Amino acid sequence: MDQSWKWTHATKIPSDTAVARELLNQLLLKLEEFGWDEQETFGIHLALEEALVNAIKHGNRLDPNKEVEVDVRISNTHFKISIADEGDGFIPEDVPDPTAQENLESPSGRGIMLMRSFMSTVSFNDVGNRVDLSKERNSSESELI
Amino acid sequence: MPNYERIEVNDVDGVTLVRFVQRKVVDAEAISLLGDELFGLVEGKRGVKLLLNLEQVEFLSSAALNKLIVLDQKIKAAEGTLKLCGLRPEITEVFVITRLNQLFDIRDETTAAIASF
Questions:
Q1: Which among A89, A94, A140 is positioned nearest to A119, based on CA atoms?
Q2: What's the pLDDT band for A2 if we cut at 50, 70, 90?
Q3: Contacts with A97 from chain B: Cβ below 8 Å
Q4: What residues of A are in contact with residue B59 (Cβ under 8 Å)?
Q5: DSSP readout, A41-61?
Q6: What is the ipTM for the molecules in this complex?
Q7: pLDDT tens by residue, A23-81
Q8: Nearest CA to CA, how far is B69 from chain A (Å)?
Q9: Fold of B7-115
């Protein structure tokens, strides 16, 4: 997509959720700066919270020697982020559907579905240790790749 | 009455009314503490009637939802009842997307929720 990005940022952060939250707050401020409204920002916030925690806790298993690589691009109309951890990855299709009746009471598995619900696209690399998320303004439909 | 950091607790007409004091329920340590405080309210008690008022909550992650699910299981196992009220529209949307609105009894307003026990 030919996109005129207003702000791009590539960084590596340690496997520390407090550091991830600082980065997330920085991104949310940028979205606000570029005119994204509260409702759209809420969805991105939720999706990124889940993606970053997944990378740090489930991917890198809080290993202080491992990092999470983040590449983010923001324009007035598009948001795109890539989050890669150093873990072994996983198969997204193997995560049980948390909305299935038999899984409703299971206290796990909702992070990925929240990402898919609030972003326009969500895709994982073959290994399952990198997730790419994008959001178009005024688009709430998720497209699985 | 114990001191709580993450919740306010009141007894209203035999219902334990719990208000979350945090606007954002995301930090792992905070969620863990929140879970401990909530579980402490119900452990060892049978037939507890617990109403969680979430009107302060602007944001919560799946980790926080998981705590609520475990709380619900603990309360049901002891023949008690858990209800939620005061959810903001965006928080309601999270419950609808995850279909947790089918697991939890969610009410609009506190007084009516208390009367419904």
A1: A140
A2: low
A3: none
A4: 42, 45-46
A5: HHHHHHHHHHHHHIIIIIIST
A6: 0.87
A7: 999 999 999 999 999 999 999 999 999 999 999 999 999 999 999 999 999 999 999 99
A8: 6
A9: Transcription Regulator spoIIAA (3.30.750)
